[in-house]
Design brief:
single chain; about 220 residues; alpha/beta; Rossmann fold; 5-stranded parallel sheet; 3-stranded antiparallel sheet; globular; binds 2'-deoxycytidine-5'-monophosphate
Length: about 220
């Protein structure tokens, strides 16, 4: 079974998708982490965005499970935490507009998922492009102000000095990039269940998705 969870930055996708996968006993695949991994490599090796094709061939990316947590390994280096910076997110959003990048990563995502019996995939285009025949498609949304507030609290908890206004600006910018790009823009698939998470708890959202998945299983 394939469960597709799509939505904009800060919609709660990652937290929700991880919990749904855990509770269903499914594999969890974070496709945004793949765009981030390519972006990380560009920054680290000082390669310009225009030359991104040079890192696509032979991209040595693995997701491995350590102590019940998925770790992201690039060329043998654990980059799980290193790809979560704003700088990496910004470059990831730029390269995500390049057709060649999307083609290579979509192929990788399909291969990875098809090696698993059941998987929850999280991203922007899972229900529309990667798995248009997914068994269950969820599109999470939330008001930009709510998404900014969540990210603000998350970063504050990590001890980072951030301003709410800056985060809101970044979220609006990221939305613009993701929804207005020509290639696989962020939009709900016609048969996706759209769920506005504004004011909803994580548990409420997770339970809602689990209910839908269980109905499919039986
Ligand atoms: O979900 P995230 O913030 O980790 O994603 C990083 C960037 O990658 C974001 O700008 C959107 C892009 N992305 C995408 O275009 N398609 C996906 N399936 C996943 C992420």
């Amino acid at each position: 079974m394939i469960v597709a969870i799509d939505g904009p930055a800060g919609s709660g996708k990652s937290t929700v998708a991880k919990l749904v996968a855990q509770k269903l006993g499914f594999s969890y695949i974070d496709t945004g982490a793949m765009y981030r991994a390519v972006a990380y490599k560009l920054i680290k090796d000082k390669i310009s965005v225009e030359d991104v094709s040079t890192v696509l061939d032979g991209l040595n990316l693995q997701f491995i499970e350590v102590d019940n947590q998925i770790r992201i390994i690039l060329d043998g280096e654990d980059i799980t935490d290193k790809i979560r910076t704003e700088q990496v997110g910004k470059v990831a959003s730029q390269i995500a507009t390049i057709p060649e990048v999307r083609k290579a990563l979509v192929k990788l995502q399909r291969n990875m998922a098809l090696q698993k019996e059941n998987a929850v995939l999280e991203g922007r285009d899972i229900g529309t492009v990667v798995f248009p025949n997914a068994d269950l498609k969820i599109f999470l949304t939330a008001q930009p102000e709510e998404r900014a507030r969540r990210r603000y609290i998350q970063l504050k908890e990590k001890g980072l000095a951030v301003s709410y206004e800056e985060i809101l600006k970044m979220i609006l910018n990221r939305d613009k990039n993701d929804t207005q790009r020509k290639e696989a823009p962020l939009k709900p698939s016609k048969d996706a269940i759209i769920l506005d998470t504004t004011g909803k708890s994580i548990d409420e959202v997770v339970d809602f998705i689990l209910e839908k998945a269980k109905k499919l299983k039986t």
